[in-house]
């Protein structure tokens, strides 16, 4: 396939922070970018050449996108997969609508992971009320998760008994769900793979992820796991990307269990919060990889240049009156990098920015990253 070169126009569905970092990477490489996002203040719009401010399924906006862009990608997994399939009739689209459809539905996602020969937590797919009238013991205690539209721990209920599970399912309005056994997690890690075509893929170093209230709080790279286990996670991410015939950047979240076995938690058909560290700490970053993959260029090198810790900045850190955190100490630290997403209104739980700290080892980076958080 012919490579798409600068200054071609690239299109992206979604203009949140992932889109903003994509636009930044693409513009630095000399491409132009059109963003489709219904929010007039979308974080990516500030840097985009063109902002189509319209709904994701707006036929006119999609036609404009298809007609004006050499290739189209997404930063947002809840885009309409059919819209992506439609765009693909005339324009190069990656990842495919089919892959996005799999990632946006936990039932399809887990079935695909298992079909690729990879492990998930024991789960029960619940598409209608009959499906939950079975023996639930293998999945208890468990977490009931809506099959669609969940993120940052939203749409999830922890349940301890069959009665609780059935009540929680009814409470969620009878929408499709999975009941997943609660596993005893030693750690959580993620691996982000870029695939351009068969055998042409590369994987970033594995990140160790610490969540707070269901939202990613810190990523530590390299993950504090045995190198062989990290290599296994990378291999599983590659295997999954091959099985899906995936083109683009694919993030794979894993659980590490007490016996050091790996289970795939979920996948995201796009760059991932746990890969923000690549901007400051890798030869190529995940957004450059997204550009490269959609343009049919080989993935860039993913070598880690320094141990790094990434800390998410949620709206909670902002003052109640909307006042900025105290950036002084963070900004004065020569080995720290602040990234803000340009969001006007801070709300608790809203991802406003992140920072990274680079140091000679992850323990030093983590200690400093946490101390810096205290100064904000
Ligand atoms: P989201 O789409 O909101 O990120 P996840 O399925 O990744 O949803 O769940 C969010 C977090 O909840 C996980 O990162 C993990 O900490 C915890 N979690 C989810 N499923 C399980 C499970 N089966 N066992 C133990 N912890 C879980
Ligand atoms: Mg998750």
What does this structure look like?
The chain is an alpha+beta fold. Helix content is 28%, strand content 28%. The chain is built from 11 helices and 18 strands. The chain has helices at 17-28, 59-68, 81-87, 97-103, 106-115, 162-171, 227-243, 277-281, 286-294, 328-332, 362-374, and strands at 9-13, 32-36, 50-52, 71-74, 92-93, 123-126, 142-146, 156-159, 177-181, 185-197, 200-203, 207-212, 215-221, 248-257, 262-268, 308-314, 336-340, 351-358. Strand 12 and strand 13 (215-221) form a beta hairpin. Helix 1 crosses helix 9 and helix 3 packs antiparallel against helix 4. The radius of gyration is 20 Å and the shape is globular. The N and C termini lie far apart (49 Å). The relative contact order is 0.12. The structure holds adenosine-5'-diphosphate (ADP) and magnesium ion (MG). Magnesium ion binds at residues 253, 266.
């Amino acid at each position: 396939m012919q490579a798409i070169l600068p200054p071609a126009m690239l299109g992206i569905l979604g203009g949140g922070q992932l889109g903003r970092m994509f636009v930044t990477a693409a513009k630095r490489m000399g491409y132009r970018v059109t963003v489709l996002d219904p929010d007039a203040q979308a974080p990516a719009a500030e840097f985009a050449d063109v902002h189509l401010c319209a709904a994701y399924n707006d036929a006119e906006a999609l036609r404009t996108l298809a007609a004006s862009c050499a290739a189209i990608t997404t930063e947002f997994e809840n885009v309409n997969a059919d819209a992506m399939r439609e765009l693909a009739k005339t324009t190069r689209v990656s990842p495919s609508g089919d892959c996005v459809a799999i990632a946006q539905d936990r039932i399809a996602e887990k079935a695909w992971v298992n079909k690729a020969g990879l492990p998930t937590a024991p789960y029960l797919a619940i598409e209608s009320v009959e499906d939950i009238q079975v023996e639930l013991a293998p999945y208890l205690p468990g977490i009931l998760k809506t099959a669609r539209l969940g993120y940052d721990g939203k749409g999830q209920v922890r349940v301890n008994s069959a009665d609780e599970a059935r009540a929680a399912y009814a409470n969620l309005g009878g929408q499709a769900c999975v009941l997943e056994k609660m596993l005893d997690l030693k750690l959580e890690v993620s691996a982000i793979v870029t695939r351009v075509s068969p055998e042409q893929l590369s994987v970033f170093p594995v990140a160790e992820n610490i969540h707070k209230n269901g939202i990613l709080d810190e990523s530590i790279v390299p993950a504090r796991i045995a190198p062989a286990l990290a290599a296994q996670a990378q291999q599983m991410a590659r295997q999954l990307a091959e099985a899906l015939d995936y083109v683009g950047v694919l993030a794979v979240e894993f659980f590490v269990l007490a016996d050091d076995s790996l289970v795939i938690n979920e996948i995201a058909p796009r760059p991932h919060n746990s890969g923000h560290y690549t901007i400051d700490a890798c030869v190529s970053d995940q957004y450059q990889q997204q550009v490269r993959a959609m343009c049919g260029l080989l993935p860039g090198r993913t070598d880690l240049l320094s141990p790094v810790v990434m800390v998410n900045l949620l709206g909670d850190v902002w003052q109640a009156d909307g006042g900025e955190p105290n950036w002084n100490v963070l900004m004065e630290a020569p080995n720290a990098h602040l990234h803000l997403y340009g969001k006007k209104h801070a709300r608790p739980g809203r991802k406003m920015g992140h920072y990274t700290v680079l140091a000679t080892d992850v323990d030093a980076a983590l200690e400093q990253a946490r101390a810096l958080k205290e100064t904000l």
